[in-house]
Amino acid sequence: MFLYCKYETRLNELEDSFFPHSLLRRLWTKKSKSKKKRRNHSSNMNSLNSTLSPNTTFVHPPFFFINGFYDIPHAKYYYVFLCFVFVVTVLGNSFVMFIIYTERSFHTPKYMAIFNLAVADVGESTALIPNLIATFLFDSQYISFDACLANMFFVFFFSNLQALTLTVLAYDRLVAICLPLRYHAIITMPAMVVMLTVVWACDSFVLILMVSLITRLSFCKSIVVQSYFCDHGPIYRMACNDNLANSIMAKLCTVLFLYLPFILTVLSYVFIAFALFKVASWEGRLKAIKTCSAHLILVALYFLPIMGTYIAALTFTLHPNARIINTSLAYAIPPMMNPIIYVLSTEEVKEFSKQLFKRKKNNHK
Questions:
Q1: CA triplet 170, 155, 338: central angle to 5 degrees?
Q2: pLDDT single digits (tens) 35-87
Q3: Separation between Cα atoms, residue 365 and residue 359, nearest integer Å
Q4: Within 10 A of 212 (CB to CB), how many other CB atoms are there?
Q5: C-alpha closest to that of 108 among 189, 172, 177, 183
Q6: Is 321 in contact with 331 (CB distance < 8 Å)?
Q7: CA 151 to mean position of chain CA atoms
């Protein structure tokens, strides 16, 4: 409790030291209805509230301040670790995309979904980690209003795309094990294209709506974002006007892109478990389980840390530093692990990788 109070006091000092009262007054004061005041202050308002149109009543600051960690010793080592994670993520997922694109035997519906997952992994890491490193490792914690909205969109867009793609892969495994004779009739390339197109379209529509609702908010209380990126929750809670629509949108996104995909994935494996009980031989069961092992690990890596953080936040008060570390690792680690798990757990990918390295060795000789 003492640490939390100390943290709140420090935040107030931070706002006062970074943003003098004269600057805050110019940032957050609405245009006066009086023509005389409008003439006197027009130059200041035009420069500081450049994001506002002449007739709008919404107050948008030119920038936000990303607060990040508070008083953590050696925090820079954590950012260096995230830099390493980012490099491994990009290289690993690029390798997976390369082998799927070049090898004709991987031009199947299942590997199209895996390719989509690799795109989501690279997109999310690129939207999150480089900005995070630039923000805190190089002490550049200011971000413009428009850049903040763009960062919010892309981080959540690719994160949601991961969850939805894992659900599509769960459906693929469900059909493969429960309806093996009809698998190639149900899971076709056109069917997979339609599913992935719907995933991209729904994700885009909901996220555009969520981000556009932020522009209806006025920020006259604070511009310090209590997170490590332009997080939706901490930003809409800073608004000084009605944010009910934003709160509803936040809950809707959590249901659509976290709880619903997780429930559908769990239901898929419940049906798979019932189907495996009907298999007479243990050998047949183990073979079926092996085909699902990579996907099960990916599901656990993605959903469990994020849901654990959500449940912990609802159950008791999380210190901001603990919340930031948990969520940043939950967003950063799964994209790094996905290609490693698929290469190690999938026989076809493993064999192709061995052949590829053998060819390179022979070419060097």
A1: 40
A2: 333 344 333 333 333 344 434 467 889 999 998 877 777 778 888 899 999 99
A3: 10
A4: 12
A5: 189
A6: no
A7: 10
Both tokens of 153, joined, read 């969109």
* C-alpha distance across the termini of the chain, in Å: 66
Residues 6+ apart with CB under 8 A from 323: 309, 313
Per-residue confidence band for 364, with pLDDT thresholds at 50, 70 and 90: low
pTM: 0.81
Q: Kindly report the number of other CB atoms within 10 A of residue 82's CB atom.
A: 24
In sequence order, the β-bridge partners of residue 66 are: 225
Rounded to whole angstroms, how far apart are CA atoms 203 and 258?
A: 12
Q: Please write the tens of the pLDDT for every residue from 159-177.
A: 999 999 999 999 999 999 9
pLDDT tens digits along 94-148: 999 998 998 888 899 999 999 999 999 999 999 999 988 888 777 788 999 999 9
Sign of CA dihedral 117, 118, 121, 122: negative
Q: How far is CA 100 from CA 96, 111, 117, in A?
A: 6, 7, 12
Contact 110, 187 (CB under 8 A): yes
| Close Cβ partners of 264 (under 8 Å, ≥ 6 residues apart) | 167, 170, 171
Residues 89/121, Cβ–Cβ less than 8 Å: yes
Q: What phi, psi does 263 have (nearest 5°)?
A: -65, -45
Q: What is the DSSP string of 58-78?
A: ----SEEEE----S-TTHHHH
> Which residues neighbour 11 within 8 Å (Cβ) at sequence distance 6 or greater?
67, 70, 224, 226
Asked whether the beta carbons of 118 and 338 are under 8 A apart, the reply is yes
Query: Are 29 and 61 in contact, with CB atoms under 8 Å apart?
Result: no
User: CA nearest 173: which of 242, 271, 318?
Assistant: 271
Could you read off the pLDDT of 257-314 as tens digits, one per residue?
A: 999 999 999 999 999 999 888 876 788 788 888 888 888 988 998 998 888 887 887 7
Q: How far is CA 308 from CA 129, 156, 265, in A?
A: 21, 18, 17
